[in-house]
Amino acid sequence: MSMAPASAPGENFEVRQTSSTDDYTPDPSKSLPLSPARQRLVDDILALYSCEPTVERVKRYTPDCVYDDQFVYANDRYKMAGQWFALPKLFNDSKTLRYQVVVNDKELIQFKNEQSWTFKLLPKTAVINALVSLSLDPATVDSEFIQVKYHKDQANDKDYSHEGAGFSFKKWQADQVSKHMSSPEVAMFEADKGAGKEHVRKYGSGAADGNAPVKDM
After folding, report:
1. N or C: which terminus of the chain has fewer CB atoms within 10 Å of its end residue's CB?
2. Which residues of 108-146 are buried (b: 16+ CB within 10 A; e: fewer)?
């Protein structure tokens, strides 16, 4: 886990892992207990996944946060706001079916999440199991309103290499969405475009040889 200071940009807080399995099916009966403040954080993140964005929920992220999944790489809170407020425009419905907290460390919460997504343009619902890693802001980790420095969502056993055409597209997509959204809520985070950033960490591989050690999740 990163020992970076709270002033360091989100890129410094990335957790990397290759899972021993690509089965992220949660078992709520085995979920680790959370403190009330941490439970409120997880509840807010799950509400964002469920197409229920609010300004207060987006404030769960630091201005210099990073969001990293198979479709998006957003490296500030303005871009992050664009992603969350765009979801209701893309999906008729999204529901958290079940989740399981598997890591509850000082500066890291990880949970397996089962989410259903119902598309607007296609009469189809997809169910995706993923491992969500929330790297917590050291400055707020002991507060009542905990913030996130790096949010990673992995839907298979490998991590992200941050290289190649696929990565270029997901970064480009995140760079564009906020610019083209006529949303007063997203506009409230426009100042975060100037938040501290560092270069994208590139790893050459999403496997163990790409600085993603194998972990039993």
Report:
1. N
2. bbbbbbbbebeeeeeeeeeeebbbbbbbbbbebbeeeeb
pLDDT in tens, 156-209: 889 999 999 999 999 999 999 988 888 999 999 999 998 988 989 899 877 778
Sign of CA dihedral 154, 170, 96, 103: positive
Partner residues linked to 98 by β-bridges: 114
- Point out which residues pair with 131 in neighbouring strands: 112, 154
Provide the greatest CA pair distance for the chain: 46
Rounded average pLDDT over 53-65: 98
Q: CA nearest 153: which of 132, 183, 139, 168?
A: 132
**Structure tokens belonging to residue 176:** 């564009």
User: What is the Cα–Cα distance from 197 to 8, expressed in whole angstroms?
Assistant: 9
> If pLDDT is split at 50, 70 and 90, which confidence band does 1 have?
low
CA distance to 78, 85, 96, per residue, from 47 (Å): 18, 12, 8
Give the residue-averaged pLDDT of 62-69. 97
Best CA proximity match to 179, nearest among 112, 98, 86, 101: 86
Residues 6+ apart with CB under 8 A from 189: 58, 63, 77, 78, 80, 81
Beta strand segments in 85-141, E: 91-105, 108-119, 125-136
